[in-house]
Write a structure and sequence with these properties.
Blueprint lengths: L1 H43 L1
Length: 45
Amino acid sequence: MNNMSSKKAMKQAQKQAYAKHRSSITNNKFNIKNKNLSKKNKKNN
């Protein structure tokens, strides 16, 4: 029983870590895009 539950816990932890990783990547891309846009706008002004 303990072996099975620990395997489940490992899988859940991996899923959570992956989800965190994915969300941080998308956030980084979004932030970079925003920074580039704001720089372009400042140059035009």
